[in-house]
Amino acid sequence: MNELIYNIRYIFQEYLSSQNVCFFNIPEYQRGYKWTAENVKQLLNDLKNFGHHRQTAEEFYCLQNITVAKGSLYGKPCMNVIDGQQRLTTLYIIISYIQRSLTHKILPADADILRYSVRTSTDAFLREKVQTGELWDKEINPDDAESKDRYYIMEVAKAVDDWFKENTLNIGVILDNLKLIVNQVDKSHMVRQSTLHFHHPLHRSDLPNKVTHHCPIFHSLHECIVIDRMFYTHCLKFIKNLCKGFRKYRCVLISGIILFL
């Protein structure tokens, strides 16, 4: 393995321990899960085509990147997923499905691998229904979902089940030939990069689609986008809470203004 690109098997089985952390965590400032059946089917079709046309063992399919930073949750060291949680969660769902035929599980039922501190109900659903494989024990109906997160998770899970009923795909292609660029950053470095590029906003289209080992600019550009996203999210939450507080105490504020006048 090199320092940036890892296959899916390594990411879910060895990466966390290699970094001395316990699990991946989707922080509270992240949005909910939003992949659709069309998204995951397109990914599976791409992997199927890749498997058919792959000419050498060294060739791999790169599913862009995830950006992570070390943190802690419930007193345990974790790897916060700053960007790419949609891809990571989708891979988690796919692995849960395909590993049912494996003797040695990539995601053991009792393993603490992915946590969703953004929503505790989603966290419980992923660990109790998806990771254990229980979700596929009966027909999946997304309309029975109790939240938006669960709806999209169940929609993707159903799409994965339907796709594999009509298609074949070597498990090794998913676990060993599908890779992610893992961009690990620290928050202090992110703040410095954000300060340097503050007057030059960047878009995702500015980033190269394919990144090699020799792209030092990748870190600074992507980290700038990450900190902008975090700053925007926290500002949005602050404004929402401020509005809630204003609605709650508007009578008191109005009364105070009248007395002052």
Overview of the structural elements:
By secondary structure, this protein is α/β, with parallel strands linked by helices. The chain is built from eight helices and six strands. It has helices at 8-18, 37-53, 85-98, 120-130, 148-166, 171-177, 187-196, 217-260; strands at 5-7, 23-26, 61-73, 76-83, 114-116, 178-184. It has a six-stranded mixed sheet, sandwiched between helices. α2 runs parallel beside α5 (148-166) and α7 (187-196) crosses α8.
Q: Helical percent range?
A: 40-55%
Radius of gyration: 21 Å
Number of extended strands: 6
> Structural class, from secondary structure content?
alpha/beta
Briefly summarize what is shown.
With 261 residues, the chain is an alpha/beta fold. It contains eight helices and six strands, in the order E-H-E-H-E-E-H-E-H-H-H-E-H-H.
List the main descriptive attributes of the protein structure presented here:
alpha/beta; 261 residues; 51% helix; globular; 8 helices
